[in-house]
Amino acid sequence: MSARPATRATGDRQRDADRTKADILEVAQREFARYGYAGARVDEIAALTRTTKRMIYYYFGGKEQLYIAALEKAYSEVRTVERTIDVEHLAPVEAIRTLAEVTFDHHDAHRDFIKLVSIENIHQAEHIRKSEVLANLGTPVLDLITRILDAGQAGGQFVTEADAVDVHMMISAFCFFRIANQHTFGALFGRDLTTPEHRDRHRQMIGEMVVAYLTGAGGDRP
Description:
By secondary structure, this protein is an all-alpha fold. The chain has eleven helices and no strands. Helix 1 (about 5-40) crosses helix 6 and helix 5 runs antiparallel to helix 11.
């Protein structure tokens, strides 16, 4: 008779632990994006989550492990969004345009992700290389793009012999640049790339750029 209450209590503790870890990760992601790996403080993250440094170390092991977990969370969110694209029911042109637009939307809405990636590039991907989760996290999007490219080639819509990594880079580069370089670009050219007046045009641009590349709409080079 006592097993059921004990089981319920265990489940409640697990849910509380999961919520606490999620809260810590959310704040950690924001703090690492704002101050970098070196500048972020575990004491401050603990204070903002109303927990303790000791508790954070209990859940994650240390500052580096917490940072890696924040990276894993950020990248996993991108991959989750990409998996929502129903390739099976979209024509190849529409599928690749949708992927470009979805990537644009996610980068626009999750600017801390851009900052984290920039910070990790400063560290030459030192921490990403230590993560088993991140080691395999790029495969799903490349598989998705490959399926779209194969369908487009088979159906005759795509005439360019495109590489999935190149297409992924093309999409990511445009979406990343307008967030990561908004301040320097604005200072040099007097235009804030992230304002609403430019957003819809840029969103359309990335979709059309990728489609034009794959369909050969740019024409042959002399």
